[in-house]
Amino acid sequence: MVEKYMILSIILFSIGIVGLISRRNIIVIYMSVELLLNAVNLSLIAISADLGDSAAQVISLIVIAIAASEAALFMSLFVVLFRSKGSLDANVFDMLGDKND
Amino acid sequence: MTNSSLLNILLLSPLVSGTLIFLINFFTKKTKQYIYTFLALTGSGISAIIALYISYNSYFNHKVFESNLFTWIDIADFTIEVGLKADALSSFMILFVAPVSFLIHIYATGYMDKDKSYGRFFIYFNYFIFFMFLLVLADNPVMMYVGWEGVGLISYVLVAFYFKDIENTYAGNKAFIVNRIGDFGFLGALMLIFINIGSGGLSFEAIFLNLNSIDSATLTLIAFLLFVGAMGKSAQIPLYIWLPDAMAGPTPVSALIHAATMVTGGIYMVSRFAPLYNIAVDISLFISYIGAFSALLAAVIATRQYDIKKILAYSTMSQLGFMFMALGVGAYSTALFHMFTHAFFKGLLFMGAGAIIVAFHHKQDIRKLRGIRKAVPSIFIMMLIGTLTITAIPPLSAFISKDAIMSSLFASGHYDIFAIALISSLLTVFYMFRMLFVLFYSNKSKKAEHPSAKSMIYPMAVLTVLSVFAGFLNLPEIFGGEANITTWLALPNKTLFVSHTNEIILMSINTLLILAVIVYTYKRYAYTDTIMKESETSIVANKFYVDEIYNKIVVKPLYSLSFFFSNTISKRLIDDLILGSAFNFKKLGRVFAALQNGNVRFYSLYMLLGVVVGFVYLFFLLKDVL
């Protein structure tokens, strides 16, 4: 049974990765990140149920709680980013790069 | 006052006064000239008085003054002390160096009067005495080398004193570079001494004690290298070319440094190493021949020179050649005594030349200075005495010293050297009287444009008296003297015996020949225009094209070699290699910079790739366990 959960988790994780890399909208990128997080949560819970140990379930609860507060932080970040450049395209925010190019 | 502090004051007073003048000159703008004069004369005057006192004590009481200042280098067993020692030889050196320096300082106050670099001139002049004292008073060759380099440096800055004229700078550079070649020889000799017997200490006594433990080939090499140093400093073939050009400096400089003191450094050094040269006989003979050829060459060139100072410069080189001849045959005291009298009469002649140059508005060509006897009668008399002295007319001082050289050359059995010396000495008579007759015996007459300052005439008068009477200090046996200076110096002279009859015959022939040459020169140059008819294109007038040959053989190839190194090796090879690799690194950087584009999504892709690579690695690592 646990294998199926793991496969689902891997599928979710892959979708998250593809979304993270290929989408340009920052909000969608954030959603992909959440998807990654939840894929990991799912695998944690599945393994914890399989082993009969509830410690991992506690960890995933904490992760969900932190992800919720993260969402609040990200929302405010989106607002700031939009105000500064008037766009939410991730390609616009490339100040880390080499400006000469 | 203790002996050691006397020596220290002697050494340091010119240093202190020079430094004071430097500070005043550097930090103030319009200092009165007399302050510089006062400081410069005090510094050199104190040393002159102490020098006379030390020499007096050394001569009469055989007292050796010593002073240990500090330890310079102290590594395990090896130490180099900074020490001064005034033994007989050193006392003898300072006996004429210090007073002559003082006199030329007084003279220079008149010569440099109202010059805008007055202060700067006396900084160098005072430092020169300091280094000269260091050179002659050092008790080990290392300290001697410091003084040796110091006087070379000061000689360079003073030759190029009027550096606004590029020719003077060239002359200064020439003097410095040619001297460096000689210094290399001295330094090489010091290194060889250190390698072979350095463990026994490097003081002169220690070196002479351990000479036996050096094998004869090395000893010969050391002696040769030391003499290369002497060649450079004392202007002998092949390193003499700097001395005539060094006349670009102010005349007091030529008088003090390039006639009376510094150029005699080589003579002093060879006599200081007399025990070494007594063993290295081949090199001694070599020294004699070099001296002989230098004396002859310089005398021949001087017969066709027209610049007063150049004539005197070649004459200095010629006289130094005489001293080296005597050194080579082992007559060290004789050579030193000639150096002693030479300092007086050559200083006098240079000062006379300087006084004439000042009086006639910096004209130096004797063809333009004809008939000046009426204009400068006092200078004429002193120049006449100086010229009579240098030509060795009895009983003037150079007669006694030069005759001693002649008879030791004769006694040594090297008749070829003796013949060359005789010819050179007759040529000396010729070119000196040629100058004198052209300057003072002419139908023309000129008026002086500047009266000579008293401060220039008085030192000349003192030197005139000295050049007349200094010879009596070392009156040979034949005239009822006791050769006092030879006894005092107590150098390891070779015994050269010549019977009294022979000596008298030699002297008479010599004197007769000299008188004959004087008469000939009088006929040729006095009250005639012969000097104007002399060809300026002959090989002698062009100094045997030695400068040109050196240019072709040494300077040009060195220049093209440097050019090759700077343009091909440095620019093409090294610069291109380094700059090329820098350029390629930059290019490579551009490639990687494209990866770092600031786009977050690419970064996450790299992260993913990294994680994948990490997992693949982990998988292969743990394959067996799983």
Protein architecture, described:
The complex is a heterodimer of chains A (101) and B (626). In chain A, 77% of the residues lie in helices and 0% in strands. Chain A has one domain: Helix Hairpins (Orthogonal Bundle), CATH 1.10.287.3510. Chain A is built from three helices and no strands. With 101 residues, chain A is mainly alpha-helical. Among the domains of chain B are: 257 residues, no CATH class; 50 residues; 31 residues. In chain B, strands 1-2 form a two-stranded antiparallel sheet. The model of chain B has no long low-confidence stretch (mean pLDDT 89). The N and C termini of chain B lie far apart (98 Å). With 626 residues, chain B is mainly α. The longest helix of chain B is centred in the C-terminal third of the chain and has 50 residues. In chain B, strand 1 and strand 2 form a beta hairpin. The interface between A and B is medium-sized, with 17 and 11 residues.
Question: Topology of this protein?
Answer:
The complex is a heterodimer of chains A (101) and B (626).
Chain A (H helix, E strand, L loop, with lengths): L1 H21 L3 H26 L3 H31 L16
Chain B lengths: L2 H25 L5 H29 L3 E11 L2 E9 L1 H24 L6 H20 L3 H19 L6 H32 L6 H6 L6 H18 L8 H4 L5 H10 L4 H8 L1 H6 L1 H22 L5 H21 L3 H28 L17 H14 L6 H16 L2 H26 L13 H16 L14 H6 L10 H26 L4 H4 L12 H50 L4 H23 L4
Name a few traits of the molecule.
heterodimer; A: 101 residues; Helix Hairpins; 3 helices; elongated; B: 626 residues; mainly alpha; two-stranded antiparallel ribbon; 2 strands; 72% helix; 3% strand; globular
In short:
The complex is a heterodimer of chains A (101) and B (626). Chain A is 77% helix and 0% strand.
The level of helicity of chain B is over 70%
Multimeric state: heterodimer
* Widest sheet: strand ordering of chain B: 1-2
Please write the string of helix (H) and strand (E) elements of chain B.
HHEEHHHHHHHHHHHHHHHHHHHHHH
The general outline of chain A is elongated
Tell me how many strands of chain B there are: 2
Mean pLDDT of chain B: 89
Low-confidence stretches of chain B: none
Mean pLDDT across all residues of chain A, rounded? 89
How many extended strands of chain A? 0
Domain count of chain A: the total is: 1
Name of the CATH first level of chain A: Mainly Alpha
Number of helices of chain A: 3
How would a textbook summarize the main sheet of chain B?
2 strands, antiparallel
| CATH fold-level label of chain A | Helix Hairpins
